[in-house]
Backbone:
């Protein structure tokens, strides 16, 4: 398949580590958020092989799942539009309360939305439920929520191809479904360690998730910083918002409060606590999602 979009030379933002350490530690953020004005981050990478599969198997429709602020739904809407495939988004919740800027943008890109009550949405992996949904819309290729599937991990491994030439000692990502993490582990080639920062509370099944995507890796290559969820998924605190404003003012780095801000908080905190050796070169993935900040109260952020 010809690529859906040409990945430009990735941009990097250097983060000043002097406030955190006297060691020589290089911290860079690779700006996947700048890939595209609407569809930023890791999501298009994760979709790459699903779109290829749909085109090869002659599926005219792709159906997938997400919440009202789902970056994955938005990226799917966009990728399908580019590929000439009809996109169907199954949204968790009720259309009267769950509308959002994200969903409006999905519809503008041509995605059909169907809202499903939270109870029923829990069946999103049940084969009978999926079969019925697919039949309702007419033979769809189904992408699991967040692209959590070996094809999603394979797509995410393409990110690593762009990073290896910079010879990082550590590559770091926020973790939602762990699909991107699995891709990084699959794509690594040298002695670099992959750092995972889960943004959900009590996410204790990361290794199991990675293995279930058919990725094998050496356990010491995966490092978990799992105490930076700030209360759970899409939860935030004043300390986190203050940190986001600081990162922006000090380093010109805008972050989203659901993923990248928590990951950056974790990394800078670990630098402060002497986790990293002198000479480390850390690359953090800015996985995008800035549009989600519009769900915060007006005035929370300086950017
Ligand atoms: C989806 C998403 C992630 C998490 O990616 P997974 O592959 O699900 O772990 C991280 N950051 C942003 C901005 C996202 O939208």
Residues:
């Amino acid at each position: 398949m010809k690529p859906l979009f040409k990945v430009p030379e990735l941009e990097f933002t250097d983060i000043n580590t002097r406030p955190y350490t006297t060691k020589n530690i290089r911290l860079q953020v690779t700006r996947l958020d700048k890939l595209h004005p609407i569809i930023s981050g890791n999501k298009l990478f994760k979709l790459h092989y699903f779109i290829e599969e749909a085109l090869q198997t002659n599926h005219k429709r792709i159906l997938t799942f997400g919440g009202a602020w789902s970056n994955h739904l938005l990226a799917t809407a966009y990728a399908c539009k580019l590929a000439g495939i009809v996109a169907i988004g199954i949204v968790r919740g009720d259309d009267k309360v769950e509308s959002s800027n994200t969903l409006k943008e999905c519809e503008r890109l041509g995605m059909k939305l169907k809202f499903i009550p939270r109870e029923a949405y829990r069946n999103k992996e049940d084969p009978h439920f999926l079969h019925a949904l697919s039949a309702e819309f007419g033979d769809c290729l189904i992408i699991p929520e967040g692209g959590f599937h070996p094809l999603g991990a394979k797509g995410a491994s393409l990110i690593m191809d762009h990073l290896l030439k910079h010879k990082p000692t550590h590559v770091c990502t926020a973790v939602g479904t762990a699909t991107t993490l699995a891709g990084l582990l699959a794509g690594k080639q040298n002695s670099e360690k992959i750092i995972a920062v889960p943004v959900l509370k009590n996410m204790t099944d990361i290794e199991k998730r990675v293995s279930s995507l058919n990725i094998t890796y050496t356990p010491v290559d995966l490092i978990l910083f799992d105490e930076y969820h700030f209360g759970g998924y899409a939860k935030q605190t004043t300390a986190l918002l203050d940190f986001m404003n600081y990162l922006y003012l000090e380093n010109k780095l805008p972050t989203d409060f659901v993923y990248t801000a928590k990951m950056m908080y974790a990394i800078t905190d670990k630098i402060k606590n002497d986790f990293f050796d002198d000479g480390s070169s850390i690359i953090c993935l800015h996985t995008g999602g800035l549009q989600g900040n519009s769900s915060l109260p007006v005035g929370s952020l300086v950017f």
The first strand starts at residue 12 and ends at 15. The mean pLDDT is 95. The pocket of pyridoxal-5'-phosphate is lined by residues 41-42, 71-72, 146, 174-181, 256, 259, 287-289 (CB under 6 Å).
